[in-house]
Amino acid sequence: YAARVRPGSLASVNDGNLLKGSLAHRCYEEFFNAHPNIGAIDPRSIPDWVDDSIATLLQQEGALLLEAGRQAECERFITQVQESLTTLVEHLQAAAVVKVDMELWQEGLFAGGKLNGSIDVLATRADGQEAVVDIKWGGKSYRRDALRANSYLQLATYAQLRRNNDAKWSAALSYFIVQDAHLLSLNHDFFPGAEIIKPEGEENVAQYWQRFEQSW
Predict the structure, then answer these.
(1) What is the pTM of this model?
(2) 214, 175 in Cβ contact below 8 A?
């Protein structure tokens, strides 16, 4: 303490919801890389695929969940990934999505200069219509309230990046909550089975972004 010695960043390891969210995201990414034809996926096969694939992922990136005394927590995590991934695929199929890009790196501009980031999920239909889906481990009530209160800057940033990269239409914006296997959509019906949240004052995404740039 007297020498002000502090542990370095490499000494800390993500755990809890942060770890689970990262692992779920990686599992989704591996699944969609292995299954590019969304319409041909049999949702009933997903639990077995997760069972076969997640053991290696846990050993490489989630070893904390393999510690003694955490077996029940680990099993529950695997079940949540199975259920949520199945639900997400069913939403994609119901929306007639033909292509899914995960961790899509985008660069663009805004009033303050350069803008860049990775979009969690970009789902595209055959006609070019797109939906941006931000994957979150938990916080369903918080995300629902954020959409209703016009407070979704991360999603709006993704929409701006798509506009900068010649998207044919404005992207539909959604949150997918892994823990609850629940899809929240911001005032759009791209996903027929999602919960649709209407923002206060009926402000649209373009108006929200304009307000953000004025604040900047």
Answers:
(1) 0.90
(2) no
